């Protein structure tokens, strides 16, 4: 693959024909493993992602063609899992669990610390293309909460010190998990399709992810108050978020000044 330069750093120039040539032997091996070749879909998508660094539309189309599976099935499978990156991303994909056990064990602080250190929020990439950050659902590592994955490898028992260490090691190129190949420079926001803005309506147009209403508003209380101050009625907003709906109810019955109890 040829190389280009972005932010002073070499980024391999995208060449899908070269990617395909590299993946093909593994794809054929995978298809031969199963009585029904379509069963090889997930490992085949991983094989493309391992080479390209992300799961491109061309890779999904090619996987569908090889497995005789409609593209809609490939795309709906890939979009179900946070294991697949459907946009170019940073060399380190940091996926922090935001589910119950982790939150009971300090994940709110961990997520806020990551956002503070990296200066990006959920589903964003740092401007130098090094780190992508995402808050994901349960990683099935609840016994070592708070947990995360770095390029799909587990990291457990997160603390601010541990986060400092791993970010420093990644920047220095000494981290134990290898960086992903980078065949395209990622955009700052890597929302895909229906993901756009849906996970937190208050997360848009906020100056910093940890500001009230940003992705770092863990309780949602600031978000509710922000929406309450908005000229648009909460009920009219296209959201199904339980917290917002319940917040609207609480505001209706709030005494006098409309403040919500924290
Ligand atoms: S809740 Fe975080 S890994 Fe299960």
Largest sheet: 5 strands, mixed
CATH class of the largest domain: Alpha Beta
The CATH topology of the largest domain comes to Glutaredoxin
Helix content: 25-40%
- Please mark out the parts with pLDDT under 50 across 5 or more consecutive residues, or reply none: 194-203, 257-262
Which structural traits does this protein have?
about 260 residues; disordered C terminus; five-stranded mixed beta sheet; alpha+beta; two-stranded antiparallel ribbon; Glutaredoxin; single chain; binds FE2/S2 (inorganic) cluster
Structural account:
The protein is α+β, with helices and mostly antiparallel strands and 262 residues long. The protein has 3 domains: 3-80, no CATH class; 92-172, Glutaredoxin; 197-252, no CATH class. It is built from 9 helices and 7 strands. The protein has helices at 16-33, 41-52, 57-67, 71-80, 100-104, 107-118, 160-172, 221-229, 242-252; strands at residues 3-6, 9-12, 92-97, 124-125, 131-136, 148-150, 153-155. The strands form 2 sheets. The protein has a 5-stranded mixed beta sheet with strand order 4-5-3-6-7, covered by helices on one side. Strands 1-2 form a two-stranded antiparallel ribbon. Helix 8 crosses helix 9. The radius of gyration is 21 Å and the shape is globular. Residues 194-203 and 257-262 have low confidence and may be disordered. Bound molecules: FE2/S2 (inorganic) cluster. FE2/S2 (inorganic) cluster binds next to helix 5.
């Amino acid at each position: 693959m040829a190389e280009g330069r972005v932010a002073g750093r070499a980024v391999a120039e995208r060449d899908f024909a070269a990617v395909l040539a590299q993946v093909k032997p593994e794809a054929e091996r995978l298809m031969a493993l199963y009585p029904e070749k379509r069963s090889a879909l997930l490992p085949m998508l991983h094989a493309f992602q391992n080479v390209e660094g992300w799961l491109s539309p061309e890779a999904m189309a090619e996987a569908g063609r090889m497995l005789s599976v409609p593209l809609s099935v490939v795309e709906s499978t890939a979009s179900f899992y946070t294991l697949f990156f459907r946009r170019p991303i940073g060399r380190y994909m940091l996926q922090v669990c935001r589910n119950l056990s982790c939150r009971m064990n300090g994940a709110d602080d961990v997520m806020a610390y990551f956002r503070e250190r990296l200066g990006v929020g959920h589903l964003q990439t740092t401007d130098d293309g090094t780190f992508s950050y995402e808050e994901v659902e349960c990683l099935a590592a609840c016994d070592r909460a708070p947990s995360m994955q770095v390029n799909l490898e587990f990291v457990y028992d997160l603390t601010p010190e541990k986060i400092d260490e791993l970010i420093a090691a990644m920047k220095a190129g000494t981290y134990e998990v290898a960086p992903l190949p980078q065949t395209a420079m990622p955009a700052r926001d890597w929302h895909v399709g229906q993901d756009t803005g849906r996970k937190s309506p208050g997360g848009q147009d906020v100056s910093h992810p940890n500001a009230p209403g940003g992705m770092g508003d863990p309780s949602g209380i600031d978000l509710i108050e922000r929406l309450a101050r908005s000229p648009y009625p909460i009920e009219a907003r296209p959201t199904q978020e339980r917290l917002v709906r319940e917040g609207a109810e609480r505001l209706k019955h709030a005494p006098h000044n409309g403040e919500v109890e924290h």
